[in-house]
Amino acid sequence: MSKPINIVGGGVAGLSLGIALRNQDVPVTLYEALSYPRHRVCGEFICGVSDATLENLGIKKLLADCGRLLDTAWYRGNAHVGTFQLPKPAIAISRYAMDQRLADQFVALGGNLRTNERVSEEVFSNKGWVRASGRRKSNKREWIGLKAHFTGLETTEDLELHIGSAGYVGMSKVENGCTNVSGLFKLNKNCKGQKRELLLSYLRASGLDSLADRLAVADMDAESFCGVTALDFKRYFNSADEFCLGDAQGMICPYTGNGMSIALESAELATEPLMRYAEGVLNWTQAIREYNREASHKFAGRLRASTQLHPFIYQKPFNQLSEGLVKLNLLPFRLIYQLTH
Ligand SMILES: Cc1cc2nc3c(=O)[nH]c(=O)nc-3n(C[C@H](O)[C@H](O)[C@H](O)COP(=O)(O)OP(=O)(O)OC[C@H]3O[C@@H](n4cnc5c(N)ncnc54)[C@H](O)[C@@H]3O)c2cc1C
Fold this sequence. Notes:
By secondary structure, the protein is an alpha/beta fold. Helix content is about 35%, strand content about 25%. The strands form two sheets. Strands 3-5-4-9-10-11-8-12 form an eight-stranded mixed beta sheet. A five-stranded parallel beta sheet has the order 6-2-1-7-13. About 45% of the residues are buried.
């Protein structure tokens, strides 16, 4: 008889872990504060995840029909800087579709999904409770993330990355002919307005006027607009009494497109120690310790590198340097990719 596992948070990490555990007949209850489907702030491309991870989690087929992104066009301000091919294709899917698909699969496998239930933080130190509740809230409000879907908006390559003076934006096709536009900006009190106006205001404040002009005339799905602030890029691997995965253990900077991959990889890593806990082979402290050791080995380097490189992505000296490197055909994209994936 298996011990039950409770998961708090039905995002990518929590749902994929729930599916993997249900595939092993572990009883799982998953608590999600919201319901499905729902839009989330996200670039909506999964960059870096391996087929083996998707297979091990039991979700490869769920993503088989998604678009694949390979060529990325980089812009600095209003100028095209260069194109870069990702070492392997990224998976394109909206969070609206992805989280719904994962939730349906979890329920189909007999998982107990309790939506619209926000669980208090006190449970995170209980045995058998997993914290997959997403990013931690920072006390400093330094960043704002905004996202919306547009129709009738063509991208020059599979993925466009626009780097401005106070933030950056990713743009790529998701399903149903929609293009997702998602940006991370330095919070700016002078940027005001509702939905599209707010996004355009942040784009213009970052010197991304050409992109703002394109978005001003494209059809925006107002329902899809969402925003987040108080982002925290610290790492939380070493908690001895909490089993944390996905963004709850540390959020990688969004320019990498690797956050969902980390959520999936961490769910994959967590499956074995949790199964052994459920079978009574490991106690809770041992399961946490085993997971933390592996997770810190696998993710700490990329989280650190992404945070250290983050300021350079949008700061002028880096951009001037990258323009020089473009002329010499020595763009640092591949190196940045290797350090952060
Ligand atoms: C601007 C921006 C762009 C991004 N772009 C990309 C990208 O292109 N590609 C990529 O891979 N990643 C991207 N990311 C990161 C990616 O969104 C996250 O890494 C990923 O969502 C992490 O998954 P998660 O399951 O850990 O957390 P989440 O997806 O945030 O899920 C956590 C869930 O927990 C629920 N929850 C929270 N607290 C409670 C509670 N107390 N009780 C019950 N439920 C609770 C929430 O409602 C949520 O559903 C981006 C992030 C930002 C901010």
